[in-house]
Amino acid sequence: MTTTAKGPASYFPSIEKKYGRPITEWKDLIRSSPLTKHMELVSWLKTEHSMGHGHANALVAHTLAENAGN
Fold first, then answer.
1. Phi, psi of 3 (to 5 degrees)
2. Which residues contact 53 (CB under 8 A, 6 or more apart)?
3. What's the pTM?
């Protein structure tokens, strides 16, 4: 039985397909950014990497949640 990703992770397959980078690479970029606030990071992905708002928001939310768990 295959489980379907929920929440922000449900966007990951389309993000990889549309922008041509693996999710781990996007997360590394987010973590290496000097920006720390959610909407600053979303705006940065949209401006610097031409990412759509939903995709940027999903990546940032998932990455920041992972970081908070560490």
1. -95, 145
2. 42, 46
3. 0.86
